[in-house]
Write a sequence for this structure.
């Protein structure tokens, strides 16, 4: 059974005890996880009252241990977008399993106006939590033109089967630039962990 929660969210702040990177709008992200037994869904507007939808959904599903990391990763992946998120976790023992959020986003900014998708995952590892986020966004320009929009200090890290891979400046994760005709799909990946 899927529970639906409709909540509006505006600007968000990452939890201060978590170590994750801020990603610039051009840096966009995908992580795969097994299906959960419990789910929640929210519609979120980019310019509404501040709330933390990711933390709220995790709490409603019984996730306590990794709720802060999940929320910080979710806020990072959806930064600057209106979005809808569906959150899933593993049934009755939710706090002992990973929590996953699948995010559909719409950007309407001066530098990027399009749809994007993201996935955030946080899971207990020993006494702490670790997580990942991925955001995927298409750009209507060639990848060689998108490279200049990567964060300052970004460096080429080689290629994976011909797909360019970049280490993002400021320790913000990695980005793959996938050419698709005259367009470029940017896939950004970042990791996070509890630090306190």
């Amino acid at each position: 059974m899927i529970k639906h929660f409709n909540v509006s969210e505006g600007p968000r702040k990452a939890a201060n005890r978590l170590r994750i990177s801020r990603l610039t709008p051009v840096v966009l992200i995908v992580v795969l996880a097994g299906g959960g037994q419990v789910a929640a869904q929210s519609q979120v507007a980019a310019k509404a009252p501040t709330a933390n939808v990711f933390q709220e959904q995790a709490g409603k599903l019984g996730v306590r241990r990794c709720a802060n990391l999940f929320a910080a990763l979710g806020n990072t992946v959806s930064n600057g977008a209106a979005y809808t998120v569906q959150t899933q976790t593993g049934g009755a023992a939710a706090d002992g399993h990973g929590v996953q959020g699948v995010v559909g986003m719409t950007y309407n900014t001066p530098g990027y106006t399009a749809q994007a998708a993201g996935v955030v995952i946080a899971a207990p590892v020993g006494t702490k939590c670790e997580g990942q986020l991925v955001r995927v966004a298409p750009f209507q320009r060639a990848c060689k033109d998108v490279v200049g929009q990567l964060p300052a200090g970004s460096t080429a890290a080689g290629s994976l089967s011909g797909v360019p891979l970049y280490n993002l400046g400021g320790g913000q994760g990695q980005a793959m630039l996938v050419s698709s005709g005259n367009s470029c799909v940017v896939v950004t990946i970042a990791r996070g962990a509890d630090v306190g």
Observations:
- The CA atoms of residues 12 and 58 lie 16 Å apart.
- The chain is about 10% helix and 45% strand.
- The first strand starts at residue 2 and ends at 4.
- Residues 1-39, 45-50 have pLDDT under 50 and may be disordered.
